[in-house]
Amino acid sequence: MAMVPLQQITLKNVLMKPLFVLIGVFICALAGTKIFKSEIDSNLAGIIALSAMLLFTALGHFMFTRGMSAMLPDFVPFKMQLVYLTGLIEIAAAIGIFIPGFRKVTGILLIIFFILILPANIYAAIKHLNYETGNTDGKGLSYLWFRIPFQVLLIWWVYYFVVR
What's the pLDDT tens digit per position in 91-147? Predict the structure, then answer.
């Protein structure tokens, strides 16, 4: 398995749609809070952005189930059901972070969830898996140059906007 030279890793090759959703919705929500609340509410904007990103990624669990189930090693049983379950977990978390009585526990569980799904992303990168098609024509290990920092960003985002 050959490593991709760092100079071949470009933003075009590794940027993910969920990051665009997270940042794009965050910027729009900042503007929206300024318009509707007369002041910028960055915490609410962060929660709205996270919720939108979770709903966006949950959609992938139902649209690309076959490819996402291939992200799991062979020893994992009930792969398709697990992909559906994790999609439902993302939807529940997208709702739970808006409910004050559930916000903190949802955030803590979401951090644990983000930690637990990282090995599947690493496994998929090693296998060059394209989760949208289920084929092995994916970005490979170069994907991890983006995915791991993105996962750290998500964990920080949840802690900063939801848990603290």
Answer: 999 999 999 999 999 999 999 999 999 999 999 999 998 888 888 888 888 888 888
Three-state SS annotation for 112-157: HHHHHHHHHHHHHHHCCCCCCCCCCCCCHHHHHHHHHHHHHHHHHH
Tell me how crowded residue 124 is: count the other CB atoms within 10 A of its CB: 24
Sole residue written with tokens 């603290």: 164
The Cα 52–Cα 4 span in angstroms is 32
Burial code (b: 16+ CB inside 10 Å, e: under 16) for 91-118 equals: bbbbebbeeeeebeebbebbbebbeebb
pLDDT digits (tens, 9 = 90+) for 41-55: 999 999 999 999 999
Distance, in Å, from the CA atom of 121 to the CA atom of 126, rounded to the nearest integer, reads 9
Length of the chain: 164
Q: Tally Cβ neighbours within 10 Å of residue 149.
A: 12
Dig out the tokens for 105 from the structure: 């526990």
- Confidence label for 29 from pLDDT (cuts 50, 70 and 90): very high
